[in-house]
């Protein structure tokens, strides 16, 4: 007998039928911001998993940019078995106070610029940005450039290691459309 597994579900279907996750919509083609009180993040892809073991490939997969196989392990029952202790600890933790904005990231500069930095359009001042552990000087430089263009102050960055981490009070942007990323940089 196999144990529980992470189940893939459309984000809007989950919101309508299971739990009312708050979502901030942006301009057409812009990423949406999904607010989680508690969420498990599978990094380095920053794929969110709810405490009831649901994930949203439709909203958070970077279509065509990463191999689908990168996500396949998330839906394996063995992966869920490893999540259970982290899930239980996160469920028992007090609510988060400071907002964590899950910017995400990539060591590939092209993906950093087009797939992650445009998500800043949904950010607000005073939040800690969560990025990949390989966050380097070139990425900091482009992050500061984008923040200045948006009129936001320099912001704290918290790198995360690969694996699964629990985050409280997290805003997780969906993947931006390529046309939105181009407009962001213009």
Give the arrangement of secondary structure elements.
Elements: E1 7-8, H1 11-17, E2 23-24, E3 33-43, E4 47-49, E5 54-55, H2 57-60, H3 69-72, H4 77-92, E6 100-102, H5 109-116, E7 128-132, H6 137-150, E8 157-160, E9 163-173, H7 178-185
Mean of all residue-level pLDDT scores: 84
Strand content: 15-25%
Radius of gyration over all CA atoms, rounded: 16 Å
Number of helices: 7
- Secondary structure: number of strands: 9
The CA-CA distance between the termini, in Å, is 54 Å
Description:
The structure is a single chain. The protein is of the alpha/beta class and 186 residues long. The protein has helices at residues 11-17, 57-60, 69-72, 77-92, 109-116, 137-150, 178-185, and strands spanning 7-8, 23-24, 33-43, 47-49, 54-55, 100-102, 128-132, 157-160, 163-173. The strands form two sheets. Strands 2, 3, 4, 6, 7, 8 and 9 form a seven-stranded mixed sheet that branches. It has a two-stranded parallel ribbon with strand order 1-5. It is globular and about 50 Å long.
Brief summary:
The chain is built from 7 helices and 9 strands.
Task: List key phrases describing it.
single chain, 186 residues, 7-stranded mixed sheet, 23% strand, globular
